[in-house]
Amino acid sequence: MDQWINWVEYDELLEGRHNAPHNLLGLHSFGRGQVLTVYRPEAERVFITDMSGKNELELEEIGEGSGFFGKYIPRKNYRAPYKVKVQYSENDVIEYVDPYCFEPQIGDEDLYYFAEGKHYEIYKKLGAHPMTINGVKGTYFAVWAPHARAVSVAGSFNMWDGRLHHMRTLQVSGVYELFIPGVEPGAIYKYQILTRTGEVLMKADPYANCSELRPANASVVADISGFKWNDTKWMREREKKDRNTLRKEPMAIYEVHIGSWHKKDDGTEDGFYTYREMAPMLAEYVKKMGYTHVELMGIAEHPFDGSWGYQVTGYYAPTRRYGSPRDFMYFVDYMHEKGIHVILDWVPAHFPKDEHGLGRFDGQPLYEHPDPRRGEHPHWGTYIFNYGKREVENFLIANGLFWLKEFHVDGLRVDAVASMLYLDYGKDDGEWLPNEKGGNENYDAINLFRHMNEQFEKQCPGTEIIAEESTAWAGVTSPVSMNGLGFLFKWNMGWMNDFLEYMKLDPYFRANNHGKLTFSMQYAYSENFIQVLSHDEVVHGKGSMIEKMPGEYEDKFANLRTAYGFMYGHPGKKLLFMGQEFAQFREWSEKRSLDWELLDYDMHQKMQAYVRELNKLYEKYDAMYVNDCEPIGFEWMSCDNANMSTVSFVRRGSSAKEQLLFICNFTPVQYEEYRTGVPCAGEYTKILSSDDEKFGGTGVNVKKVVKAEKIECEKKEYSIELNLPPMSVTVFKFDYK
């Protein structure tokens, strides 16, 4: 016995400190014979059989009450795989295939590329993966925990006893792995981690594809392979598109929080619809309203509803609140069937400190930066990823690719980009650490974005990667080859802030703030922008869009129609948060459904009809989108008429045909015989007036067709005269001559 047992390893195993249990457990050749060992605490007797249940051999317990059983046999009678029969008592006997007779499924090449930060499908190796090895069905578990003293799998399949399934570390990678036969999809598990200081942690799997429904937080084994997709044509067409193509396509985005768009009135606490139930409802509405894209607020697994999905614990798992991973696949597939693009909000900026999550994962800072001046947001109470660590970089880049490839998602809106780019973002003096040159730029985050966007574009062409970046950082949407960050689009936060401040003003004061309306065109082509009126603007006491508007009841609606009309005319793709299309009065809350009952009221119905008409025109006339990112697509006709608070401008499309003239009046005053310059002679045909009675307006008569006159106005050779409605946007189409 002394010859075939390493007593140091024996002690480590019994003390739960062994990180290479396959050295001691399982089937081993020894001399001309074999050694068979099993560790099963509390067992009375242990037997080994072949896979047919024959050739039974009883093992001997080595050390009274140790739970360690073994035997040397002078012949090589057994081969892997084989079965273990454990008798706890006369009537309590279990059988299983020994986990310690299987080779690793992660190779040297996997470990090398992971350490380099370039294993772009690492999620197929780490995590929990149902598979069959040597004819045996089970689940392969693998986790990265380089600071751990030992790691075990504990779950519903082993009575949450971490002693039963110790994992093996691979080389010096910090990766632990174990194949456990018999574990099927639906099994619940965590990793039991023994830290260097002797603390025992129970952690959810960072690469898990499914989780328990909160407040439970264990990981769930899921098989996400084999889903029957019906969007082959969609994906093939997507792959043909490049950056230039995407910049010229229409994007009218409907931003949605799945849990509160509609709730069931069935008496349940949450009232959530599943992904499958939501898909046809949402698709029908989005198509009816004329949107081209849906953008889903955070659906990666998160513990707290009130975080709206922006404090993530399960980066590789669609939240269980609305169903299974396959249910979410169905959702995306259904949207594609109806011609709707799906964008996900994605959060690589920070993560919460929940005990089961990524924080201090193996007892030390692992995913987060170890220096709190780099690794924590003091005012958010969250950890910041260590972007300079290659395995963390790999975790994030592979995660983005995971959603784009495995779930066929069409784009990612990257949250809080500014907080990643600036080391001092949201921090006071003494709370941040400068870079090596003494500045506040985060070089590691910059490199991450460039690496990330290069791979997204290379591996998932045609996808739309969008930065929520709130500063004037240069080159956010410039290609990496031009030293940019490589995003395709950027949220236009500057426009949003200025424009909303302008719209909140009583019209009397707008004349003195005219620059807030027009300044955005000074930088409109510095990036590829999306004009956004997002969820961030209708929470935390900011009021809904309709509530921001000044005046009495009908004045508010007139202001909002004018605001939306100007937004759709302004260069840049479009995004509007749910509920604002029908002028929801209450601030949004994730705790309740949108106030759909407001559509019983005339003005709300008409506002919804107006937004639907804007989307209809947006899709019909490419002047509203094809040259969003090119100076040729826009020209001021009048931008200096501050006293009257009016502006007019032209949007140009792909040809001289069907160009558009927008005339905006931001006062409640009707201007008769209003004249504005136009770009050419010819007829100007009205296609929209926000003041139309069918939209809730006053119905001021505007001629259907207005002919340009050769009368100079605002330095334009030609001009038109019309009866300009109060608080309105009027749109004409014309052919350039």
From TrEMBL:
One of its GO terms (biological process) is glycogen biosynthetic process. InterPro entries: A-amylase/branching_C, Branching_enzy, GH, GH13_cat_dom, GlgB, GlgB_N, GlgB_N_E_set_prok, Glyco_hydro_13_N. The active site is at 415 (nucleophile), 468 (proton donor). SMART domains: Aamy. GO terms for molecular function: 1,4-alpha-glucan branching enzyme activity; cation binding; hydrolase activity, hydrolyzing O-glycosyl compounds. Pfam families: Alpha-amylase (PF00128), Alpha-amylase_C (PF02806), CBM_48 (PF02922), GlgB_N (PF22019). GO terms for cellular component: cytosol. Keywords: Carbohydrate metabolism, Glycogen biosynthesis, Glycogen metabolism, Glycosyltransferase, Transferase. It catalyses: Transfers a segment of a (1->4)-alpha-D-glucan chain to a primary hydroxy group in a similar glucan chain. The keyword Transferase applies. Monomer. Belongs to the glycosyl hydrolase 13 family. GlgB subfamily. Catalyzes the formation of the alpha-1,6-glucosidic linkages in glycogen by scission of a 1,4-alpha-linked oligosaccharide from growing alpha-1,4-glucan chains and the subsequent attachment of the oligosaccharide to the alpha-1,6 position. NCBIfam families: branching_enzym (TIGR01515), PRK05402.1 (NF003811), PRK12313.1 (NF008967). This is 1,4-alpha-glucan branching enzyme GlgB. It comes from Butyribacter intestini. The gene is glgB.
